[in-house]
Amino acid sequence: MRTETPPTVRLEDYRPSDHLIDRVELDVRLDPHDTRVTATLALRPNPAGRAGAPLVLDGDDLTLLALELDGQAPAPDAVRADASGLTLHRPPQRPFTLRIETRLDPTANTRLMGLYRSNGVYCTQCEADGFRRITYFLDRPDVLSVYTTRIEAEREAAPVLLGNGNPVEAGTVPGTDRHYAVWHDPLPKPAYLFALVGGRLDRVAKPFTTMEGRAVEIAVYVEPGKADRAAYALDAVERSMAWDETAFGRAYDLDLFNVVAVSDFNMGAMENKGLNIFNDKYVLASPETATDGDYAAIEAIIAHEYFHNWSGNRVTCRDWFQLCLKEGLTVFRDQEFSSDMRSRAVHRIAEVRNLRARQFPEDAGPLAHPVRPKQYAEINNFYTATVYEKGAEIVRMLRTLIGETAFRAGMDRYFADNDGTAATVEDFLKAFEAVTGRDLSRFAEWYERPGTPRVAVSGSYDPAARTYRLAFRQTRPGAGADAPPLVIPIGLGLVGPDGPLDGPLAPPFAERVEDGVFVLETAEDAVTFENVAAEPVPSLFRAFSAPVRVESPLDDAARLTLLRHDPDSFNRWEAAQRIALGLMTAQVRDETAGDAGADDFVVALGAFLDAEALRDPAFAAQVLALPSEGDLADEIGTEIDPDAIFAARRDLRRRLGTGLRERLLSLREALAEPEGTPFSPDAAAAGRR
């Protein structure tokens, strides 16, 4: 067991690998306690590396059985090998072959990293650095290789043998009770995307034809007796494939796409090339046991791992500091998929709630770090809400900043320029600079700076000039005085007592506001609307256009206007939440104060339900849902009285139920499924429920 402190790895110290591995041939002979792995590596010096450098391969808890260099055993003084690595002191300065045989005990591998056996199934987990627990290797994401894998096992114990890529051969081992399968992945990949599975598994499958005409078989493998709960996951894969073609122009590239779901997989889900592995709680569902939330989660997680086929696999990360490049981008992609499959309004609300609950506290605490951190001691601590969720918000801001058409063109350029390579954040932004002609160097600061910015907003109306001025000021807690301002896209509009207002922007600000987005690029700035007949209510940060904390001038009267008339769904929900928090906070602090605005809130919610409940019942349910006791405690901040908080929420809920009773009963009747309607997990049925 390791006891030493791992060394700190720094982004600034990155240098290319001194050697590359073009091809990998693996022969894995599975045995519960005595698995033998023979790796034949086709290596060559990297022109971008150090000439004459030793070959240093990573290892972790390995037993070396044999080593050959170009078919010959190297001299004893030419190599150093132990459980944690293998060094060839003077490797050839030309292409050469290294053959390495190691021995593993999959059953004893309780870390569940590398190759392990649990519940009778052989399985792998190689991200971030688990492949070095299978064989000695250049276990880093910028070394991409073409893999051919032969897997052998007892047929009775492991009748199913799966690997990356396409199957090319299968058969029995003469004179034994063992069989084998050979898999070939023609697309170069880093070692962390390697996978194999062997065991007794049931299978469901369906065909899919890509937009390029490729016939693909989608298969889901599950533990025996669970196949009847895999249909929804299979359907989610098919919809993910079709959506990625339409939304991003990305087609699948192999003949098979396999999903394996086992109960003992420790990472939740993993995007191994052509062989995604999941903990089965993210795959299996049936109407008897799964909630609507379970179905939505399965759909999103299946999609996330599939979308990695391009954002992570075809274009991977140069180093682990670029983790946000695959994870933040893929989270954004799965969010967009879920928004198209279900209610976009509801999904955006869920995304922001999650961001505020998980990432904002992380950004405000002692573990705050940039989306692209600058150093780490343990790579597995990198998988954070900041890297994933804030990383996704940065991609979303980029789309808001340049517009949907330019964003799609930039994504196409990114995939085209970097296909088959290990990329960086700079490569990502460079693609968008190329298609827009914009300098995104200042926008890139979002990747480098920790902390959640604050934006204070003030508004002033001039009735004589019929103008409305919005002023913005940004600050970032913890940032030094010399820290440059961030580029913050602010979705905005004006709302009046009868609905949204339209009016041109007064010069010189017109050219800086496009499609309802104002870009705050300095510490302070302002924008002026003209031809405004009466004082409006500003609708700020529509669709939560930037991951910031907003200090706005709105009171409950203004929020009621937004709840009734704002065309932005997120801000309608936010207005209802803020009104409810205000009413409940007032009651906690003064037993009678919360009554004052409750009647107006009931009236506004009634009007909202009349307009929206049948059109998008899932969104209507979100607007009606009160903030939790925890949200209320956070709002109060100090001197928390749990009993008073509980009572305030109970009383407001009772007030709304009483005031909206007839509407709610009517809606229940209108949205009820006819007697005998079969259960459907789709978004429309879930919304009605």
UniProtKB/TrEMBL annotation:
UniProt protein name: Aminopeptidase N
Q: InterPro entries this protein is in?
A: Aminopeptidase_N-like_N, Aminopeptidase_N-like_N_sf, PepN_Ig-like_sf, Peptidase_M1, Peptidase_M1_dom, Peptidase_M1_pepN, Peptidase_M1_pepN_C, Peptidase_M1_pepN_C_sf
List the transmembrane segments: none
Can you give the residue ranges of the Aminopeptidase N-like N-terminal domain?
93-193
Q: Output the Gene Ontology terms for molecular function.
A: alanyl aminopeptidase activity; metallopeptidase activity; zinc ion binding
* Record EC number: 3.4.11.2
| Species of the source | Methylorubrum extorquens DSM 13060
Indicate the segments forming the Peptidase M1 alanyl aminopeptidase C-terminal domain, all copies. Answer: 557-689
Which processes are annotated in GO (biological process)? Answer: proteolysis
Required co-factor(s) are: Zn(2+)
